[in-house]
Amino acid sequence: MSKLEVMKIDWTAHSEQDTIQLAGWLGSRALPGTMLALDGDLGAGKTRFSQAFAAAIGVTAIVNSPTFTIIKEYAGSKLPFYHMDVYRISLGEADDLGLDDYFFGEGATIVEWASIIGPVLPECRLDLYIEHLGGEARRFMLTGHGEPYVSWCRELGTLGGVSI
């Protein structure tokens, strides 16, 4: 098995609108099987980011945290959206949920608290760690693993992100 190319980039959102724009930019590039792995402290903005991403792929339903249901499925005009929150499950439980059907399905998937189930996540994905900087400002640390995610990070670098 060949090693995937990896690219890291920092992106600063100075306002909620900047966060919405980043999520929308990523959503506009989403294809079937798109996988975004979100992490960050409580209140960092994972669910708000997920809502904006969902809107970008044409989800008109209200998107809220799937904390107690673990997985919520939404119809989008561009793609189905699979929104997961794995904060309350173990790695073993995650392995039993049949997540590959979502990860490699026809929709785009966002997993909040993704590091909890890291070993069962697809190798090819975009990791996003969100750091709350105060007020509406957020630092997004994006790591693209394989294509198209490395290309997305490269392109974000030309739009003002900083490669690290």
Walk me through the structure.
There is one protein chain. The protein is an alpha/beta fold. It has one domain (17-140, 151-158): P-loop containing nucleotide triphosphate hydrolases (Rossmann fold), CATH 3.40.50. 27% of the residues lie in helices and 30% in strands. It contains 5 helices and 8 strands. Strands 3-4-5-2-6-7-1-8 form an 8-stranded mixed sheet. Helix 1 crosses helix 2 (46-56). The longest helix is centred in the first third of the chain and has 13 residues, at 16-28. The model has no long low-confidence stretch (mean pLDDT 92).
**Helix/strand order:** EHEHEEHHEEEHE
Indicate the CATH architecture.
3-Layer(aba) Sandwich
Major beta sheet, strand line-up: 3-4-5-2-6-7-1-8
Number of helices: 5
Q: For the record, give the distance between the C-alpha atoms at the N and C termini, rounded to a whole number.
A: 26 Å
Percent helix, as a range, is: 25-40%
Would you tell me the overall average pLDDT? 92
Structural class: alpha/beta
Low-confidence blocks of residues: none
Largest sheet: 8 strands, mixed
Q: In CATH's first tier, which class applies?
A: Alpha Beta
Our estimate of the beta-strand percent is 25-35%
Shape: globular
Q: Compute the number of structural domains.
A: 1
What is the CATH fold-level name?
Rossmann fold
